[in-house]
Amino acid sequence: MKKMEKVLAKAVNGREIVVSLVASKKMQNTREGFKWVEVGKHVLLECGQEIELNVDGRSFYTDIHEMFRLPHRVN
Fold first, then answer.
1. How many other CB atoms are there within 10 angstroms of residue 60's CB atom?
2. pTM of the model
3. What letter does residue 55 receive in the DSSP assignment?
4. Is residue 34 part of a domain?
5. How many domains in the chain?
């Protein structure tokens, strides 16, 4: 199951949406075998769509020219 953290994201035009931050996990090969490691975060919208964060780790696009910012940088 994915752990989620709810956050309020704001757009430049003043629009606000509540989104969830979901850990992005990938399989890594180790000497002991394969294990799951967290490699970043995705944004989960209320409609169920997962979106990747931009390189700055703080903003994301829901559509063309619709950028939202999170209040803090996501590690």
1. 21
2. 0.75
3. T
4. yes
5. 1
Kindly report, residue by residue over 40-57, the tens digit of the pLDDT. 889 999 899 999 999 898
**β-strands 16-30, 4-11 pairing:** antiparallel
Taking only the tens place, the pLDDT of each residue in 10-39 is 998 999 999 999 988 899 999 999 999 988
Region 55-61: what's the mean pLDDT? 91
| The one-letter amino acid at 13 | N
In a domain, 75, yes or no: no
The answer to whether residues 24 and 38 touch, using CB atoms and an 8 Å cutoff, is yes
Answer yes or no: are the C-beta atoms of 42 and 22 closer than 8 Å. yes
Domain range spanning residue 56? 4-69
